[in-house]
Amino acid sequence: MTTTGGARLVDGYALVVFDLDGVIYLVDRPIPGAVEAVSQLHADGQAVAYATNNASRRSSEVADLLTGMGIAARPEEVLTSAAAAAQLLRERYPEGSQILVVGAEALRAEIRAAGLTPVTRADDGPVAVVQGYGPQVGWTDLAEAAVAVRGGATWVATNTDRTLPSGRGPLPGNGALVAAVRTSLGRGPDVIVGKPAPELFAAAARRVPAGRALVVGDRLDTDIEGAVRAGLDSLLVLTGVSDVAELLAAPPQRRPTYVSVDLAGLFEPEAVVRVPGPMEAGGWSAAVRDGRLELSGAGRTLGALPVLCTAAWSTAQPSPVRAASSAAERALATFGLLSD
Length: 340
Prior knowledge:
Elements: E1 15-18, E2 25-26, E3 29-30, H1 34-43, E4 47-52, H2 59-68, E5 78-80, H3 81-92, E6 98-102, H4 105-113, E7 117-119, E8 128-131, H5 139-150, E9 154-157, E10 163-164, E11 171-172, H6 174-185, E12 191-192, H7 199-205, E13 213-217, H8 220-230, E14 233-237, H9 244-248, E15 258-260, E16 272-274, E17 280-281, E18 284-289, E19 292-297, H10 304-313, E20 321-323, H11 326-334
Parallel strand pairs: 1-4, 1-13, 4-5, 6-7, 6-8, 8-9, 9-12, 13-14, 14-15, 19-20
Antiparallel strand pairs: 2-3, 10-11, 15-16, 17-18, 18-19
Pfam families: GNAT_like (PF18407), Hydrolase_6 (PF13344), Hydrolase_like (PF13242)
Domain GCN5-related N-acetyltransferase-like: 282-337
Keywords: Hydrolase
């Protein structure tokens, strides 16, 4: 089962909003095919935007990074959780207010640009703590944040991503650092700015007519849930964090509109599927039997995903998966789903 009528997926939207880590690049290297995909969108006159939870770079720095990879990008096309957090704090507190910053220099720069004063110690009397990912964040930074929040400061997290993708696999993200402070305080942040909160995507979508923005992400718990909460269609690509096993176990608020292996799904009808689909389609069928999700039949490998999602999402609990045909076994192996 492909998208409607064999048309290019991208042609149904006025704006494509990309996540960055795991979709466009891993750390500082472009994902294969990403440069070509965005270049094709530019050549077609398609509007694009980028929404990232990573608070370690400013919008201009992200645009420069993308441009250096061969993707022409402007700062105004980039929405970061760091800038959104700074804007939120500027709306809440008077100019010059002291904000304890836990994170990278980019987050401090956004706080300064918003007319606020970044500080590093709880003894400075900050009205708020803003916490974002930074590779140099250490115990002392987390301790100062805990003391300030316990003393009455508002606690704002740019995001709570448990991990961030890398060439060596998932690494601890800002959510892991937030969890350390949460453990010491016995409570979570007062405000979480980034995905899955909908504002980054909603801000991008306001640039085009309602409902005509497509979110492209690699994480069900941030990108896809954020799109659902913003009321936007989404495309899950399997180049980053979330895999097919996580997709089949996804609750309703984390279910994408479409799935593709990579960004080729934007342009090639055979490289993308809409989920869920019928219980039988494209030569495949799936059902839950004896507490196990069973795939049978034969067809295009990616075409098995809609029927698998339909069967899996019809049950209250995730089910182990088994193959009922040799073609199904090969498809499940491709998806990393083979079980004993």
